[in-house]
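>> received
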Amino acid sequence: MIAVLSSDIWWWYYTLHFDMYNCKDYMMYSFPFDYDNCKYISELEKLGKKLSADMIENAEKKIQSYATTGERMQLIFRPTLSKPIIEDIDRVLAKHYGLDEEQIDYIVSYDNKYRLTKEAEEDEE
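>> returned
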């Protein structure tokens, strides 16, 4: 499920159906993915493990000092650095959902094409 919920397909679904401010369990449970009947679970499991390891490797480690609890290390994740793995996950999910290249390209590129601000607009001019 790490792979599925890290995919651009999940993100596209979430942005279309919810407020993008809260992410509650019912939102994840409503995502139309049948784990028990997916033919690609082993591929998704491998990619989920690969993604988790890559995100930890790419995480920024930051030490915060607090008066009451002392020093604590935080990991700041940068999912964009793991984008190639996320795109591999999307390709596997595309097979699961029967999406063609044009459909998966639309979903994978959704944020870049439709949500970026001035940079995207300037590129189109």
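>> The two ends are 39 Å apart (CA to CA).
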